[in-house]
Amino acid sequence: MFENKKIFILGMARSGYWAAKVLAKMNNEIVLNDANDNQDKDRVKELESLGIKVILGSHPDDILDESFDYIIKNPGVHFDHKYLIYAEQHNIKVINEIEMAYHLLPKGVKLVAVTGTNGKTTTTSLIFEIVKTAFKEKAHLAGNIGFPLCEVINDIKENDYLIMEIGVPQLHDFYDFNPDIAVLTNIYEAHLDMFKTREYYNENKKRIFMNHTKKNIAIVNKGNEDAYRITKDINSTIKYFTSKEVIDGCYLKDNKIYYYGEEIIDTKDIKLQGVHNYENIMCAVMVSKELNIANDIIVQVIKEFSGVEHRIEYVKTINGVDYYNDSKATNVTSTQIALSSFKRPTILLLGGLDRGHSFEGLTPYIKNVKLVCSFGQTNNRIKEYCDSINIPCLVSNTLTEALNNAYDNSKPNDVVLLSPACASWDQYKCFEDRGTEFKELVKNMVK
Questions:
Q1: 6 vs 49: CA distance, rounded Å
Q2: DSSP state of 224
Q3: Which of 173, 174, 422, 440 has the largest count of CB atoms under 10 Å?
Q4: Residues 337-350: tens digit of each pLDDT
């Protein structure tokens, strides 16, 4: 399928680099293009040594023509990019790195895919830890969690287990991708810069189930209105979880998590606190049960699991002030969750890529926020929002400036929380880079 073809890779980053490396071994003619010329020079040289034509710094009009069989698109590229419009007009198929690599998987691989607005990374990480404990080297992790499938494809053997986090921009460019078990954690407003309407965003989330039959399992949050509504007509065998009521499925009752009436774990034994984390754990329990993993392994891993980097991550205490990194909060709902985790006076670092989304959803959660330090593209819009609800706001251009403002205005027993409610792409390659910079800045502060 991907042999002796002419393939255009739009966007380098990590996924484009690994897709190019894999495809270069299959006698393909490959052009890789990225408008950002600030790429790893050693990687560029490596790709060129494999016969790949690498064009950086712009998107020239004359490098894409009708002779190409595929465009492999980076998920961050908007759908109205001129190359994608050209591809649609000339019947060039547009896919992404995961869709391509999916066709290269060995036989019998058990594929678990997790999507949702919030909780994807925590849920995926926990499932992987349980599966790895149960099946050792047969467990593999890939996807939106930071490991392109092409990067690990050569390590995956027949009948192994592959656990993937899938973002909605990736789902848009899927056609044949079909997980054995698909998890939908929840759906809230997000990615409106790319999908324009919430309903179109929802439709693309639903694509994770598009190739399902009754042989495939869908694990869905019954307590989330949109997730429950849009999945009523899918072809999967649906199994539900919720924290809101006792159901035929996985649920929370009297501070304990149950699976079809069977008590699994008491929440007092869980390091990850908060109802949102209990729902993530329910997803992991349900997947583990589908994979016939024993309860003692499930419970052991849940008890030991302390969360993921960049998600309400404690960094350091300075002068009695606790600093937390929640850079993974790229939408308002994630920041709502973070704010709900603290009852002390909070200085909130808010800002990033301007997707045109509203910050009004923060209002019920902002009662403990004494100051907002805004930064990035949305800095002035955030100031306008804060003025409208009488919350002080100091405007900065960069995260460094915002953190310095927070430091100068903090007092003992305060929390300084980076929970941006915005994507990072205005100033960073990814939210991980933003969170890492924040942690380094905090750790280098003078006590």
A1: 18
A2: S
A3: 422
A4: 899 888 899 999 99
Q: What angle do CA 118, 121, 126 make, to 5 degrees?
A: 120
Dihedral (Cα; 392, 394, 398, 404), 10-degree rounding? -100
Of the candidates 337, 316, 334, 331, the one whose C-alpha atom is nearest the C-alpha of residue 416 is 316
DSSP calls for 36-105? -----HHHHHHHHHTT-EEEESS--TTS--TT-SEEEE-TTS-TT-HHHHHHHHTT-EEE-HHHHHHTTP
Say if CB 373 and CB 403 are below 8 A apart: yes
What is the three-class DSSP state of 392? coil
Tokens of 1: 């399928």
User: Pairing state of beta strands 256-259 and 262-266?
Assistant: antiparallel
pLDDT in tens, 66-78: 999 999 999 889 8
Question: Would you state the structure tokens that stand for residue 291, as one six-digit string?
Answer: 């994979």
Scanning the structure block, which residue is given the tokens 């890529």?
A: 353
Q: Which amino acid is at 298?
A: I
The two tokens of residue 66 are 């009708």
| The Cα angle at residue 440 between residues 436 and 443, in degrees rounded to 5 | 135
